[in-house]
Structures are given as structure tokens and as C-alpha cells.
Amino acid sequence: MADKVRENQQYLRHKAKYIGLGNPETTREEFATQIHRDTLASIAMHKDILMYNSTATNTHPELYRQSLIKKMVQPLKREGPKTPGSEKS
Fold this sequence. Notes:
By secondary structure, the chain is mainly α. It has a domain at 34-74. It contains four helices and no strands. 2% of the residues are buried.
């Protein structure tokens, strides 16, 4: 019994600390969107990671940051169901 209470308290602490953790009603799409936006925000706000990625894509860091922020606002693109004949060999 004490383990369940402790696990619940730990879950609530983590949920308060990490906003994107979700709850049992969180859908797969909502969770993926949160992870995607957290990743983009992390890249946009960390100077060294931003510089690394902007160098790799050959763009100015501020332009790359702006494009990341624009991507955060847009919803994720959902992939349609794959059909066996649509794959290229």
C-alpha cells in the first residue's frame, strides 16, 4: 500500500516538474506533439546546439531559430495509412 502512495506522490512531483508528462487520458498524438515541441524549444534555446544545427544546415543561427519557433506552432503532420503498393523498391 505504501508503495502505491509513494509512486503516486512521485508521479505528481514529476508531473509538476515536467509539464509534458501527460496523464492516462493523453493520446498518442498529444504526447508526440509535446515531445516534438519540447525538442524544438530545447534546440532553439540552447546556443551551442542551435549553432551546431545551423552550421549543419548552412543557415544563419537566428534564421534557424525563427524557423524552429514557427515549426513549434504548426501541428504535426500525420502520416496516412501505408498501402503495400505505395512503397518504392
